[in-house]
Write a structure and sequence with these properties.
By secondary structure, the chain is α/β, with parallel strands linked by helices. The chain has 6 helices and 7 strands.
Length: 228
């Protein structure tokens, strides 16, 4: 089930439910890769709307980052995004940085660039993922791309993002190919999240002074114009 925003998703979901259904609702914890603000109250909304329905809420198990290997195997290589560092200032806003990301993904297709910008801005307004206090992930799938792109944005004073209690200093903007199946995009999100935890969300990342330093901590390739 895919929708552009939470209101559309709820409308579609509720139209498919009967009062006596058994529903399994997979959700994620606040620190999880797939958490969004709408998940906080979705189970309560469903239960209130359908009080006679059998509702099971499923949370994923906690990942053991201590035991995981971070040697990226060959099958994970396509999921490792190219990096685009960007420092946010009053002159270089988050929207302008997103425009730069979309332009890098589709350098010769203005219509695709504009559409990708809309997708990412909708993602920012609807379901930003707070990986940790001060660090936010925005993601979307759009268009045909050889490799996913991850823009690493940094601002020393924090940048206001809708639906979040505090302005984040680090904003990660991931753009993946639309042609790939959903599980492919989830794999890319998982690779990014694991790398973040390996770096150390609370210590190493919070001590950096610019986007280039964050990109260096990731250790992945930097996107170069004309080199996909």
């Amino acid at each position: 089930m895919q929708s552009r925003n939470w209101k559309e998703l709820q409308k579609t979901l509720f139209s498919e439910i009967d009062a006596d259904d058994l529903m399994l609702l997979p959700v994620d914890r606040r620190e999880g890769v797939m958490w969004t603000p709408g998940l906080d109250h979705l189970s309560e909304i469903v239960a209130a709307r359908f009080p006679k329905m059998n509702l099971l809420v499923q949370y994923p198990s906690f990942p053991d980052f201590q035991q995981e290997s971070y040697e990226y195997a060959g099958e994970e290589e396509p999921h490792i995004p190219l990096l685009l560092p960007a420092d946010l200032t009053r002159e270089n806003t988050l929207e302008q940085a997103i425009r730069m990301l979309a332009g890098a993904a589709f350098p010769s297709a203005r219509d695709k660039t504009r559409a990708a910008i809309r997708h990412l801005l909708d993602s920012m307004r609807s379901y930003p993922i707070e990986l940790a206090p001060g660090t936010v992930l925005i993601h979307s799938k759009f268009g045909e791309m050889e490799k996913p792109l991850l823009m690493v944005c940094h601002t020393p004073d924090g940048w206001p993002v809708p639906n979040l209690p505090r302005p984040p200093r680090i904003i990660l903007v991931l753009l993946g190919p639309q042609s790939r199946p959903p599980e492919w995009h989830l794999k890319t999100l998982s690779v990014v999240a694991r790398r973040m935890h390996q770096i150390g969300l609370d210590h190493a990342l919070m001590s950096v002074v610019n986007a280039q330093a964050i990109a260096a901590l990731f250790g992945w390739k930097i996107f170069r114009c004309g080199k996909g």
